[in-house]
Design a protein that fits this description.
By secondary structure, the chain is mainly α. It is built from seven helices and five strands. It has a three-stranded antiparallel sheet with strand order 1-2-5, with no helix packed on it. Strand 1 and strand 2 (141-144) form a beta hairpin. The radius of gyration is 21 Å and the shape is elongated.
Length: 203
């Protein structure tokens, strides 16, 4: 929802970066520098959403005569123009698959992540957003319905996908299903050995 999006924006991006500045003292230049920093780690759409949420708060504050200016107005925002995707060639994919065969079992989870990216076309945040409940070995599918990101103030956190259309179920090769089952056995074995010291990683 819009309210959830605004709460997330303020918790993860606004408060950690701008929270020490009084609302009446935030300048347009400070907002522009904040936007420039966000552009280095977030998509253009997400940056625009962050600024839009902050601007909405200032618009309300102006209406309530709590501030006289909205420092978000007039800042330069990323255009959101799509850049041409850079795909691997068939020979590059073949070489990558060949090298992946050399990955040791102890690093199986990294191998699987690359396989999922190759065969599923998932974003990085979607891959690390996968939990075991999203894996159906009987149907050889993965359900994508959340992402995971890292925020300065909150650490690793789960979020919704970029759009409603991003929620989907994809089919995966049998080989990838078998690797996922092997990884699950690895984790179960580690859990049995470590007992109460075992901690599931959120990513």
């Amino acid at each position: 929802s819009t309210l959830d999006s605004m709460k997330s924006t303020f918790t993860i991006h606004v408060i950690p970066d701008l929270g020490k500045v009084k609302a009446t003292q935030l300048t347009r230049g400070s907002v522009q520098r904040w936007v420039n920093d966000l552009r280095k780690k977030l998509s253009p759409k997400t940056v625009r959403n962050c600024v839009s949420n902050l601007s909405s708060v200032y618009a309300w504050a102006q209406m309530m005569e709590m501030v006289t200016d909205n420092p978000c107005r007039g800042v330069s925002l990323p255009s959101g123009r799509r850049t041409e995707a850079n795909y691997l060639s068939m020979s590059e994919v073949a070489l990558l698959l060949e090298r992946l065969e050399m990955v040791p079992d102890r690093e199986l989870k990294f191998k699987i992540a690359i396989y999922i990216a190759l065969f599923g076309g998932l974003r990085k945040s979607e891959i690390v957003g996968l939990d075991w409940e999203h894996f159906d070995p009987a149907r050889h599918t993965l359900r994508i319905e959340q992402t995971r990101l890292i925020g300065r103030a909150v650490g690793v956190y789960s979020d919704s996908t970029k759009t409603e259309k991003s929620v989907r179920t994809i089919s995966i090769p049998v080989e990838l299903t078998n690797m996922l089952l092997a990884l699950k056995r690895q984790q179960q074995h580690a859990s049995e050995i470590l007992g109460s010291e075992w901690k599931d990683s959120p990513a």
